[in-house]
Structures are given as C-alpha cells and as structure tokens.
Amino acid sequence: VITGCAMPEAEQGMNVSRIGLLLAGLPDTVPGLTINRFCASGVQAVADAAARIRLGEADVMIAAGTESMTVMPQMTGNKTSISPSIFERDENVAIAYGMGLTAEKVAAQWQVSREDQDAFAVESHRRAVAAIAEGHFQAEITPLTARSHVPGEGGAVRVIETLCETDEGPRPDSSLEKLGKLRPVFAARGSVTAGNSSQMSDGAAAVLLMSEAAVKRTGATPIARFASYSVAGVPPEVMGIGPVEAIPRALKAAGLQKDQLDWIELNEAFAAQALAVMRTLEFDPARVNPQGGAIALGHPLGATGAIRTATILSAMQRDPALRYGMVTMCIGTGMGAAGIFERV
Q1: Is position 330 annotated as part of the catalytic site?
Q2: What angle do the packed helices 271-281 and 242-254 form, to 10 degrees?
C-alpha cells in the first residue's frame, strides 16, 4: 500500500500508510509506504504503484491518499524549521510559502478578476450540489462513522457518533451576492477570498491497481488503464500555474491531444489559478470538474489526487462514452502534476 499525505508528521506520522492498512484489517504481510508531494501526493501514489507493477515488482497494489486538515493546525510535533537562506536569496521563494499570496500573483499576472473568481466558485458549488442530488458520488463513497469525544460533567467523556456519507462542503445557497461581500484574506487590495479558495477538509481515498496477469488470475473487471503521468516545476511564487507545464507532457506521453480528454479533474486550490490554467490551455469549461471541485468539495491536500481519481473512475463506470480522463493539480513550492486514465 502506497499512501500520499502532504503533512505526514505528528498525528499523521508514524508511517500513516502502514497504520491505516493495519487498522483496515489487511494482513500483517502487506507493507505500507507513505509518500509526500504535497497536493499531488494522492495521484503520485497511483503513479508509483503503477510503476512498481510495470517493473514487475508487484502484481497488486493499493494507492491511497489521506489528510486530516482538522488536526493539521494543532499538530503537536510539527515544528517546521526552514533554513533562513531560502528566504534571503529570493523574495519570491519566500512568498511561495504563503499559498494565498501565490494565488494573488497568479490573479494579477494572468488578469483573473475578482468577479470571474467568484463566478467560478458559485459554479463549483452549483455543480457539486447537483451531482450530490443526482447520486453521482454514492458509488465512490464508503460511508463511515466518525467519533468525537466531548468532555462532560464530572469528568465524563461523551462519545458522539456521526455517519459520514455525503460531502459537507457544497452550499446550495452560494451566490455572487454573498461571495461579493467577503473581504480579501491574503492581500489588502487583493481578489482572493475564503469564498473563491478551496476549503479545509478531511478526506481519504484508495484505488486498486493490478497487472494484466493479476486481472486474468483473479477475474477482476478493470475500469481503466493508467496511461501516463507527468510532474513539472514552475516558479514557486506562481505555483498555481503548475498544471500548464505538466499537462502537455502527460498528453504527449499518452499520445493524446487535449481535445481527446472527456473529463478533467482540475484541483481548484484557488479560483484564480484554476481559471488561469483553463484559459492558458484553452480547456472547454464543460469538461472541467463537471461535478464541482475543491472550492465546493474541499481539498484535503494529500488525499485530493486519489479522491479525484475515484471520481473519474466512477464516472467512467456510469458513462460508457467517457474514454479519457485526467487528474491534475498545482503543487506548493512550484510544481504541477497530471495523470491520464483510459477506460478499458
């Protein structure tokens, strides 16, 4: 099992991949590996698992992603110490450690207006709400019970159980009027707000990968083939534009043109960067995040790539007309990643 996690320390430490597979009841003989490529960790896990299978090192792999952004700000053991020389050499690199400031830079350089960002956010919520109402997420979601421990009277601890089976982020009442009232949160005269940025969320997802021999041996029915994967670097201060460099490389490796992509899951870290990527690559908006994106559904960092992969695979099962799908995202400190899937 390979699990992507963007903050694999403290509460998410101790090789969370191994801990997770043991809690899931997998045999002790199954090893676990935790990897980190920030926002692309989940799809990087898929790529690494596929590579192991292609090399003949494994027949069956589970690729996963997980992140609890609820506990991240309180991580007791996460005392990051970065060399001051990183900031002394280049002011732009220092800016890159504040994701919101990079979004403001992208908005300015790619001329993405506040109005366009807010409209994009409203549409993300509209699509997500519609997809939930139509039951499109049901096939990819495993219901689970979350337990909260609340202090009670006399030192007693109350356990509150909540069934989680639907994403909590999408807002049916999202509107341009409401988003327009929000103040910028990263720059005094900026355009990036809490409303046109991705939400802080908890999430996890897993994908099963097999070699062709394993598929024949087990009689499993595959959904898709992992066709290609690419990662590219960009200036850290405009990290949101990363997919612009990664996507053409992934398309070339798969032998495809962008117009052949039927479904594109582009992570909406910020509306500003998502729009900049879409406009630069001239993507058809109807094919990008048909069921909403991270602004509505959330962006649990290391889990996002695996979750968006599950969404594409579920869509392929539902719609025989879908042949090619892509998961892509920007990555903190200046990178972009893109993975392409082909139905079989």
Answers
A1: yes
A2: 40
Assess whether pLDDT exceeds 70 at residue 109: yes
Alpha-carbon gap, residue 59 to 209, rounded angstroms: 8
Confirm whether 5 is a catalytic residue.
no
Which of the following is catalytic: 5, 136, 149, 330? 330
Spell out the CATH class of 85-138+171-196+222-343.
alpha beta
Closest C-alpha to 49, from 217, 203, 205, 211: 211
149 counts as catalytic? no
**What's the mean pLDDT when you consider all of the chain?**
95
Residues whose CB is less than 8 angstroms from the CB of residue 269 and which lie 6 or more positions away in sequence, other chains included: 39, 99, 103, 197, 198, 240, 294, 299, 329, 330
Task: Dump pLDDT digits (tens) for 28-84.
Answer: 999 999 999 999 999 999 999 999 999 999 999 999 999 999 887 665 555 666 677
State mean pLDDT over 265-279: 99
Task: Pick the catalytic residue from 5, 136, 149, 299.
Answer: 299
CA angle 273/241/328 to nearest 5° reads 85
Q: Which of 39, 136, 149, 164 is catalytic?
A: 39
